[in-house]
Write a structure and sequence with these properties.
heterodimer; A: MetI-like fold; 13 helices; B: alpha/beta; 9 helices
Amino acid sequence: MRVFSRINLPGLLSFLALLFLWEISARSSQVIQSYFPPVSEIIRSLLSLIFSREVVAHLLATLGRFLTGYLLSALIAVSLGILLGHFRFAYALFEVLIEFLRPMPSVAMIPVAILLLGIGNAMIVAVTLYACTWPILINTIDGVRNIEPTLIDTGRTFGLGRWKILKEIILPAAMPYIVTGLRISLAIALILVTTSEMVVGGSGLGFFILDEERSLSTTNMYAGIVIVAVLGYGLNRLFLFFEGKAMAWHRGATARGLL
Amino acid sequence: MVAILEVKKVSKSYRQLDGESTLAIDEISFRVEKGEFVSLVGPSGCGKTTLLMCIAGLNPPSTGGLVVKDVEVHGPPSNLVLVFQEFNKSLFAWRSILGNVLFGLEAREKRSQDAQGEARRLIKLVGLEGFERHYPWELSGGMQQRVAIARALAYGPEILLMDEPFGSVDALTRLELEDTLLKIWEDLGTTILLVTHDIEEAIYLSDRIYVVSRRPSRILQTIDVDLSRPRHQITTRADAKFMELRNEIYRQISQ
């Protein structure tokens, strides 16, 4: 019973109805079909594509760039955020720069990256890293600044030095904020990887989607979009799975008003 | 007797928002001897917490000095731990009860062969056996303070400072915690300096009481509590001497 109650039946039905409407509209008109090929056709090409060596290679290219950029940015932004959140002078030093760069759409940096790194993996990873850094950095700084001062005093009375306090107390206490930043950046990373791939070309799902559009293989283009969507969905589910494991303490604590 | 802690003419003043400086503690001096249970009693907001923060090395005094085991205090001394009043803010929500107590051992950096066993022994000592895998937020306030005490003991301090440790638990739990604390003190021989506004609690627990005035804090009187040990919640509190001390301290504070 529990499994059934968790499925949003009305939502699922309306989604299927929409696909059905798409299907019959596409089949009713040649003109519509050239823009919106029937869903059944898209699914057919999707099934053949996901087993093709070419698409698997594109998928792996995208995934590799995504993971490199995202994980590097997590490492850099969390470390930097803890330092900037903890040392007020360091934050003051970089505040203007951060506030200037943060609201700027990261895709605007793609030409700069091309200029500096040429067209290739390095450039795509750099742009992804850059874009993912901001949400993680800002949230980490916020998390460090919102730490209960008693926690720091607890570390001090137990004789912990500054670095030990950062590692043993500030990092875990700021983790709920950090995780929020990491979740926002997960979506951003995929956006930046696929966008950069469209600009740079050569490989990756972003390139594949644009390339199929240019070759007038509209069905394959839609299939590519579905693959990216499923990839994004899967990565998000994976993230939520690990978050659930790691942050169980936080859900319990907040539910009881302790944090 | 050997003084393990000496407070020498400690004053603390704060600068207010309007730039005026206000005196919170006015040249307080007292000493605590090894193995003693000493309490500071005074009205709420009298600067007792500030004084404890000074002694713990978390907040330096404006003037005066502190000596712990013949060493001047600059920063938190390694043989002393403060148990905070707000235990819910002091416990690590991301660590289990066992993890919180293990923290005390890790902080000591004494590579113990059997840290887990030692932590479990302390958890048992404070009466939380069976809750090792629980998280702080799964426990009641009184149990959380027990965890904070076990964590402090795990550090192996020679002096335990306690800031209104039972201030935010219900009256019955408070009595239980008092007895747990006395048992620990008798078992381990740790020197305890406790701050409280509860006169009866101070008498029940202590060897000696320093009565602290309203701001700016001064020591009004030193009271030796010559009630027999072990103490008992019913008989000790019914003792005529207990009443006498209570009335005397109350008169001092309410002046």
